[in-house]
Amino acid sequence: MQTAPLVFLSFLALTVAVKLPSNFQKCNRKQPDLKECVLRAVQNAVPQLTRAYDEVNIPNVHPLEVAEATIGAGSGSVAVEQKFKQCKLDGFHTMKIDKFEFDFEGKTLSVSGYFPEIKKECQYELDGKVLLLAVKGTGPSTVVLKNLKVTALFNYEEKMKKGKTHIKIISSKVNLDPELVSYNFENLFNGDKQLGDNINRVLNDNWKEVFDDVKDGYVEVINRILVQLLNNFFSKVSLEEAFD
Fold first, then answer.
1. What pTM does this model have?
2. 243 secondary structure, DSSP code
């Protein structure tokens, strides 16, 4: 998936370090249960992202706005490029995290958990074939990913700014595994309800085949969002401030 700049990318990463918001928990890097403490801190912070924290470059993710995105055609069942704009992605604040571990020596961050639901509402444009059926239309669309399991490994580098250590993600690997995906594209075939209902029914009856063919596009957009959220945050909050 190719994306135009996300709305929250407009935040400028300033070099002046700031303090962690007072309602976010802190851990000490020397404490014996550091991994458990960091996990608890992140689990506590994520549900609070229903408002913007401008001071640490974190936007409101309930919902998160994306100007436009394109999912390229798959190599199998989805022979159509999917163009989306005016998107709202909701559900990031509900993530249930079961792993959030820093390896400070190896400079990696490992994350795993699941989203009960990620909802993507966009204006769409389609013109091609899905499962050998012609698909054409423009209008509102909703894609819902249920119980979306996520695993991610982020590699980062450290940079010194005014005597403080900041980190920046330089590479990442993300995997997604949804339990169910549902689709609804309105106004297909210029509003022909019978044809539109039939296409939506076929998409939902064959959701796994359809999703798997374009999965890389969804992986890319989730990866971009997670990397940008982390980089935004750590551009402002140093390791010295994040950890006592």
1. 0.89
2. B
